[in-house]
Design a protein that fits this description.
It is a single chain. By secondary structure, the chain is of the alpha+beta class. The protein is built from 15 helices and 32 strands. The chain has an eight-stranded antiparallel sheet with strand order 13-12-9-10-11-14-21-19, with helices on both faces. Strand 28 and strand 29 form a beta hairpin. About 3% of the residues have low confidence.
Amino acid sequence: MKKVLIANRGEIAVRIIRACSSYGLQSVAVYSDTDADAMHVRLADEAYGLDGRSALESYLDADKILAAAKASGADAIHPGYGFLSERAEFAQAVEDAGLTWIGPTPENIALLGDKVAARTIAEKVGAPLVPGTPGPVESVEEARAFAEEHGYPIAIKAAFGGGGRGLKVVRNPKELELRYESAVSEAISAFGRGECYVERFVDRPRHVETQVLGDGKGRVVVIGTRDCSTQRRHQKVIEEAPAPFLTDLQFEKLVAASKAIGEEVNYRGAGTMEFMLGSDGLLSFLEVNTRLQVEHPVTERVTGIDLVIWQFKIAEGHSMDELPDVIPSNGHCFEFRINAEDPGRGFLPQSGEYTRFDVPGGPFTRVDAGVGSVGTISAEFDSMIAKIIVWGGTREEAIARSRQAMKECVIEGIPTLVPFHRRMLEEPSFTATKAKDFKVHTNWIDTECDWLGELTQPLPAGVHREDVIREWFEVDGKWMRLGFPASLVGSGGGVSTPAKAAPAADMAGAVKSSMNGLVSKWLKATGDAVSEGESVGVLEAMKMEMPIVAEDSGTFTQMVEEGTTVKEGQVIATIT
């Protein structure tokens, strides 16, 4: 390989560009219209526009990416994560074009990307598994029969899904039909296929995983474990390596199962074997991610293995003989995802300009970012701004250093997860030093985290975020920034006599967007009768779907078309 086209954007594109430089390869970036001035575009040796704003028009358009590879003279493609990284047909198209695909074989991706097939392989090699259907269910009646045999709660999962999309938990028979239909609908919307399978749901599970490398000839190396249990909406927000508080037997089972699954399919390249670990110690295989993970830096930091460069080496056919079967870990490492989300309002995704980003430093802190000190977070793409990775000789030391890193990390102009991370680093359930005190599980934020509301300052009635002016004040020797309604601030910048704030939309029966995002689907058409509490459409932003619910009964009128990007508080329909 001499020149690598990176079929991605943001921080992962920057990460791969830097690895190309280290390995002596030229890098080629591609970009959407909204990313024309992005960091990955500026850092790459060459950059080619994809002529489109949305992901569908750009990073998900395989033909445009292959055309850019041809135009640039690239001889290899690295997909990063997300977008086309787990599309077997794209991997095959890359190889059919005579290019090197830096990833698992198309056969690996197709086989392991099918969760039912992956479960079958796991069962064949003796990996631990909770009860589940042998294949996709054909109807809600089949799901009901499984639940009656194995008991509630059950999980209905999209066979071709991931990231929590198309996953619904059913805790009693009354919920079953609605949850089943919702899972199928979401699977079709997100992945183009509605097949779902059913398995017993493990309550209060930890999410543990292993990082693997395969040579494509039957040898698989396990490069440590990770814990990714701190999640919201089934999406990870904090990861750590190695997974803490595992028994020796649990570690041995994870390693043995991961190697066996990878060896069974002659796995090639980097991949992740994911498992659930129940509060009772029950270990169960979950799925295989046939790509580089967002959280790969924590594994790199505790093992000294550069996973991207090893992806390059394996793609070129290099031997893995220099690596032992299991790579030992040195110390402990955390990764904090810095997303543009408001944790005080249900982690609602945010978009818009941020005016300040102070990056933490120090010898044990790594920051992977795809943005600069000021910039814009686009509603079209993922909400991630950066990842902050902190290492310590022990878990306790890594936590102490993480507190300092979060103190140094300052982002203004847009809500982020920074306040959430600061609070988590003081949470005894997370910072515990003994296994019995470590209480975090994949649903912990939803069920136990009762302090989220403290992280967002409430605004006066009728005042919206775009109507707020923020000013600095010194209080007790410390500077803090406070928000005031724009209507209370005089032309000279000082606070004036209180005045009534104008509502964002004064239209009778207005249906307002609850967040910045995309109107992905209308369930009602203009002229339809709707009832209070009925879903009339779906908002989507950064892997999150939210129903648009009628607050009144009446006649529905659309104000924006499907596919329109809208802002929080914008009128998108009326009910009269």
